[in-house]
Amino acid sequence: MVGSASGMSTAQLRPGGAVELWAERHLRVLMLAPTVLILLGLTIFPSIYMFYAAVHKISPNPNVPWDFVGPGNFVRLLSDQQFHVALLNTTLFTVVAVTVEFLLGLGLALLLDKYLRRLTFLKTMLMIPMMLPPIAVAITWKLIYEPQFGVLNEIMYRLGLPLQAWAGDVDLAMVSIIVADVWQWTPFIFLLMLAGLASLPVEPYEAAALDGASSWRQFWDLTLPFLKPVIAIALLLRVMDALRLFDLVFILTGGGPADRTKVLSLYIYQVAYRFADPGYAAAISLFVLFATIILSTWFMKRMRLAD
């Protein structure tokens, strides 16, 4: 009995020791539990509500009961021309904007990492657009694009070039949106790429230099493979955010002219509030959600297969 008692831990001998031992082992879970429960409450309930709304026809009159339509709202997507236009515009914006942001962000990161490391103030200046609220960015670019008194047309006038409507022109509206988005979010790519470059090992580059590899060869064979996880995260985050574009379009163009800049987020807003059809808006929102999940899963699998 004495030997058995001596083999027991102090925690087990004390009253309530087993509970304290369990709490100590699960301390991390206990500390995170309140936050996790709050997040689940803030996400699960809206998600269930959105699924429920997507299979109903909802009248703007709160006294009219919801009419169950099953997959009717999702089938409606196939014949909705406005949805097709918004989907095409969103895809075009996402592909062009994210590609330009990635190339500029990576180029700036390589430039500052190799030649301008000591210019810390320049790095800070480059990150300022990313820190500004999207609404402030949209209003700023609205003033820049203003046809009569905007800075951009003032520059065009002084250079002797024809003035443009920019955000109001059918051919230039989407370009104007992309330029504003690139200005704001290129620093995000730049910051991630710069952090990735700072973490690269030195030894492979020294060995490559001794073997006579050129700078381009080192970039292609060493830098890009090493940066692949960072590139995957940066592109994934930017694509997911670009698919939810709303602020710039809402303030700069309102989806016009001629629906050239109408994107999915703006169309969801119009369907829900202007056309008073929240059930159909919920169905479009679920489409965007599922498309984002499928695209993200496919992209991550492709990045793993490319290793």
Question: Would you kindly provide a written description of the structure presented here, covering whatever features stand out?
Answer:
It is found in: Cell membrane. Keywords: Cell membrane, Membrane, Transmembrane, Transmembrane helix, Transport. Residues 87-299 form the ABC transmembrane type-1 domain. Its main location: membrane. It is a multi-pass membrane protein. The chain has 2 domains: 2-54, no CATH class; 79-305, Orthogonal Bundle (MetI-like fold), CATH 1.10.3720.10. A two-stranded antiparallel sheet has the order 1-2. With 307 residues, the chain is mainly alpha-helical. It is built from 16 helices and 2 strands. The longest helix has 34 residues, at 81-114. Helix 5 (72-79) packs across helix 16. 74% of the residues lie in helices and 1% in strands.
